[in-house]
Amino acid sequence: MMDWIDIIVREKDDSFVISIKDNGINFNPENINSSADDIDYSQILGFNITLLTVKNN
Question: Nearest to residue 36, comparing CAs of 11, 9, 16, 10?
Answer without folding.
Answer: 16
